[in-house]
Amino acid sequence: MNMALSLQIVVAAAARAAAAAALAGRVVPNRAPDAAPAPVHDPEAGHAEPHAPDDDLPPLPAGAERIRIPGCGYLVHYPLDENIVAVCPLHTDCKKKRTLKSGNRAGQGRCLGFLVSWLQSGSEYRDQKHHVNGFATTLPKRQRARQDFMQLPNADHWATKERPKASEEPDEPVRFV
Ligand SMILES: [Zn+2]
């Protein structure tokens, strides 16, 4: 008799537990679904991100730096050579290089506007040969490209790589070849 009573109690308890579980099962989907776990994972993704963007790009020699120009490629600064190379992703082996040294060529040494303008023009040229050899830009386009560049994080640091401006010289040279 006692055993039968105990069994009844156990069965009743199990039924209550099952009912509670079923109730919980109905309640959970009605709560804010999975809101809590997401923020836990997001910071981890954030920590990984600074290294992720360049994973698809070739490694750089020691001392070289790279900056992405959103949507149109990137620039690489080679401090030993004192130049910047623009790399266009639209065409195979499509690059343009300019020096950071002062010199006799118009605008020489202040090449950021020119190179960013070149990257921004990539879709206007059908292949590497035309993009590299047929490129033409204007002062307004170079000025706009420089303004766009200066909006990027770390742009101020990059601007210090150019040769200093001559007195009265604007940020973007009036002439550049
Ligand atoms: Zn190109």
TrEMBL record:
The name of this protein is: Secreted protein
Q: Where is this region: Disordered?
A: 31-62, 153-177
What ranges does the record list as Basic and acidic residues composition bias?
41-54, 158-177
Keywords recorded for this protein, A-Z: Signal
Is Cell membrane among the key words of this record? no
Q: State the organism of origin.
A: Symbiodinium microadriaticum (Dinoflagellate)
**Organism's domain of life?**
Eukaryota
Q: Please state the span of the N-terminal signal peptide per the UniProt entry.
A: 1-20
